[in-house]
Specification:
Blueprint: H1 10-17, H2 20-35, E1 38-39, H3 47-51, E2 59-63, H4 88-101, H5 112-115, E3 119-123, E4 128-129, H6 141-155, E5 160-164, H7 166-169, E6 181-185, H8 190-193, H9 203-213
Parallel strand pairs: 2-3, 2-5, 5-6
Antiparallel strand pairs: 1-4
Length: about 220
């Protein structure tokens, strides 16, 4: 596990690793991966913390749990591996980027390129059993990722949090809005987007403007 995390996360998370809930969570995950097909691949469970260091984090996007179909999840929320068909939510994200800042719709749905620029693509649940959405809920992942969000809030300043949909918005209570910037909208899923709760939120241009105002480099969305 620790090999998957950029070293800058360890001072902020190592206390969580020693807690009993986390040890029980790891035992559960190990048992699931041994006996079931689970996603993402074991080596990618903590990929969000590998591609995006704590020090470099300047935007946080929250998802819920990983894609549960074959070859989709790669450890970054909303992201899929190169060459994999874009799921509907990701398609709507890319369409909003296109409408918002004029970036061409990309061939690859792999968001490693965002993560490497300082976008923490964090699912609040980091694993799932194949074809069983939500199957690893309430096993301890939520407690761990809440601690991640709170650590970012407590130990950094000027981070832009993008909270899409009701589930993500519930995490507002963990974020100090006197130090950070919170942008909310509907979820990019077709159900929400088709009702008018996603398109036109301009979160990508807004995030970049906030970063400029804070003297930080922008994200090449």
């Amino acid at each position: 596990m620790e090999q998957q995390l950029h070293h800058s996360w360890k001072p902020h998370l190592e206390a969580e690793f020693e807690k009993s809930y986390f040890k029980e969570l790891m035992a559960f995950v190990n048992a699931e991966y041994t006996s079931q097909t689970c996603y993402p691949p074991a080596q990618d469970i903590f990929a969000a913390f590998s591609y995006c260091s704590f020090d470099k984090t300047k935007v946080v996007i929250l998802g819920q749990d990983p894609y549960h179909g074959p070859n989709q999840a790669n450890g970054l929320c909303f992201s899929v591996k190169d060459g994999i068909k874009h799921p509907p939510s990701l398609m709507n994200i890319f369409k909003e980027v296109q409408n918002d800042i004029g970036t061409a719709y990309p061939d690859s749905g792999n968001l490693e390129r965002w993560a490497s620029q300082g976008v923490l693509l964090l699912n609040t649940i980091l694993t799932v059993r194949a074809h069983e959405a939500g199957s690893h809920q309430k096993k301890g992942w939520e407690k761990f990722t809440d601690a991640v969000i709170k650590s970012i809030s407590d130990n950094k300043e000027g981070v832009v949090f993008l909270l899409w949909g009701g589930y993500a918005k519930r995490k507002i209570k963990l974020i100090d809005d006197s130090k950070h910037h919170i942008l909310t909208s509907g979820h990019p899923s077709p159900l929400s987007a088709n009702r008018g709760y996603w398109y036109g939120n301009k979160h990508f241009s807004s995030s970049n403007q906030i970063l400029i105002n804070n003297g930080k480099s922008t994200i090449k969305w």
